[in-house]
Design a protein that fits this description.
Number of domains: 3
Distance between the termini: 43 Å
Helix content: 25-40%
Number of helices: 18
Oligomer: single chain
Structural class: alpha/beta
CATH topology of the largest domain: Rossmann fold
């Protein structure tokens, strides 16, 4: 199934796409194709927010700014979410890093999308509605806007389903939702949210439909606070601009009357403003409208005087197997006879390693010494690897780039992360030795004991083994690099070679080193395997 999702800034399109992709994968592999190239702190904050939003949903992230059809070897049974084509077109048209203008970029991006769409079973693409604002643009900006419109028209014709998001609600313009989803127009409160463009008849609709009197309508300005006791609050966007200017959060949805009627101009569509305050205002408005809808408000859009109810997700669950079959969704199949070489490497040294600090979930970068040691190892591993995986933490991503150079498509598998040490993160034995909670944890079987606020060694091992099984099941490459951490590597080696009777610390390689595995089979529990240390230092082991 191929789904196109578009909408304004902060409209809820990315959240909807993530929910759809997660459910459509039916427990199988699902990939997040991240296209944004961060150019400033604002971009980096946006990326961090998206990472946080999809945390725990099982996505494997592939960073691919453009030309993804040639850079990504598709998993035919995987579900792919590309967010967003807006950034991808900007990268293709104006350059990924350095400015290089390509006026024909939209043709190439559209061709890429069509090609990739034909190669995978399920694809969801997120785009941005940038076509409704009051501005005249230079030739290149106008060309970019025309290019995105061209891509949207081409792909809307090809996709099975086309969805527009606004204010946390959605409209299905073409096709239908996947099995297991439906939209509802019934809110959980009596609150009404009315949105639309300037002068579209929003206030007139509210007056006629709800029988409002002028005395019941409060009109916001940029210089004051809204009257929370008013039955109807008009021009909510003006109050939100004041909040943006003062860098503060708007009032919680619960602060309004339960039967409040809120009218807000939809300012979320259009080219990203040059003015920083206007960018912030637009983003804040979109997200605040989402909050109102999420709090149970019914969302109505007024367009040229016509009234349109926007649906909200009412149900999101994995469908039954017979429904999956009807929808054409099959569980992925593996070739158990295939033998793969897997280079299993531990990341380079960090300050935490050098200072003997517990470091699992904390995102430490490589230290200067760690980088220098990796430079010395560069070239120690051959270069004809096909697939690359990291745990998504910066120390594994930096290690991969130091040893293998910049790769065009790297898959982030968060379940390959190190054990989460919870309250002990960033602390040493000397700092913790007198802590009763720490003494309790290290006494006895600390593989089963859970760190306060973290996890146990067994919990880490279970998720790591699941992650590797997914790779074995779904990646057909014969030569795979996995850059992860000492604990996960030990967990994998203990599972594969129990007869060696080595504990976690005996299996852990030095930073920047690891094991070369040769595995035949589609799961760690049912495979044959042999290994050698990397860099090689002895006889092969079986």
């Amino acid at each position: 199934m191929k789904i196109w999702i578009t909408g304004g800034a902060g409209s809820g399109k990315s959240s909807l796409a993530q929910e759809l992709a997660s459910a459509m994968s039916a427990g199988g592999p699902h990939y997040y194709v991240a296209t944004m190239v961060p150019r400033d702190d604002e971009d980096r904050r946006r990326i961090s927010r998206h990472i946080e939003d999809r945390a725990g949903m099982g996505f494997r992230t592939i960073e691919c700014p453009c030309r993804f059809a040639e850079r990504i070897k598709p998993d035919l049974d995987g579900t792919y979410l590309l967010d967003s084509v807006t950034a991808m077109l900007a990268n293709a048209m104006f350059g990924e890093r350095d400015f290089v203008y390509d006026p024909d970029a939209e043709q190439k991006v559209a061709a890429d999308l069509r090609l990739f769409s034909n190669c995978v079973k399920h694809l969801i693409v997120v785009s941005d509605s940038i076509f409704s604002d009051a501005a005249l643009y230079d030739e290149m900006t106008d060309g970019y806007r025309r290019g995105l419109a061209y891509i949207e028209r081409q792909m809307a014709a090809q996709c099975d389903t086309v969805i527009e998001c606004a204010a946390g609600g959605a409209i299905v313009h073409k096709g239908k939702l996947p099995v297991g989803f439906r939209f509802s127009n019934i809110g959980d409160t009596q609150m009404e949210l009315i949105i639309g463009g300037a002068c579209q008849g929003k206030k007139e609709y509210a007056i006629s439909h709800f029988g409002l009197k002028d005395s019941e309508i409060f009109t916001c300005t940029e210089n004051g606070e809204p009257d929370l006791s008013a039955r109807c609050i008009d021009h909510l966007e003006r109050y939100l601009r004041r909040c943006a200017a003062e860098d503060r959060e708007p009032v919680a949805p619960e602060a309004f009357r339960k039967d409040a009627i809120l009218i807000c101009e939809d300012i979320t569509c259009g080219i990203v403003p040059i003015n920083a305050l206007n960018r912030k205002w637009r983003e804040l408005t979109g997200r605040y409208l989402q909050r109102l809808a999420g709090a149970g408000a019914d969302v109505t859009r007024v367009f040229c005087g016509f009234v349109q109810k926007l649906g909200k997700i009412d149900k999101c669950e994995l469908p039954e197997k017979e429904e999956l079959s009807k929808a054409g969704i099959e569980e992925p199949k593996a070739d158990p006879s295939q033998t793969r070489q897997i280079l299993l490497l531990r990341h380079g040294r960090t300050k935490a390693n050098e200072e003997h600090l517990y470091c699992g979930s904390t995102d430490w970068p490589l230290s200067e010494e760690g980088r220098e040691r990796l430079r010395q190892k560069r070239g120690a591993y051959c270069t004809d690897w096909e697939s690359f995986y990291t745990s998504s933490l910066i120390r594994t991503k930096e290690t991969l780039e130091f040893l293998f150079g910049e790769q065009e498509a790297v898959i982030e598998e968060p379940d390959l992360r190190e054990m989460d040490f919870g309250a002990f993160e960033g602390k040493s034995y000397e700092m913790l030795r007198d802590d009763p909670a720490y003494q309790e944890w290290i006494s006895g079987d600390n593989e089963r004991k859970i760190c306060p606020g973290g996890e146990s060694g067994e919990q880490m091992k279970e998720r790591v083994l699941r992650a590797v099984d997914r790779i074995l099941l779904n990646d057909s490459a014969e030569r795979i690099v996995i850059v992860t951490h000492g604990g996960p590597i030990a967990a994998i080696m203990q599972q594969l070679f129990p007869e060696k009777n080595l504990n976690r610390y005996e299996w852990q390689p030095e930073c920047g080193e690891g094991y070369l595995l040769r595995i035949t089979g589609s799961s760690l529990a049912e495979c044959t395997a042999e290994f050698e240390k990397c860099p090689a230092r002895g006889e092969n082991q079986k």
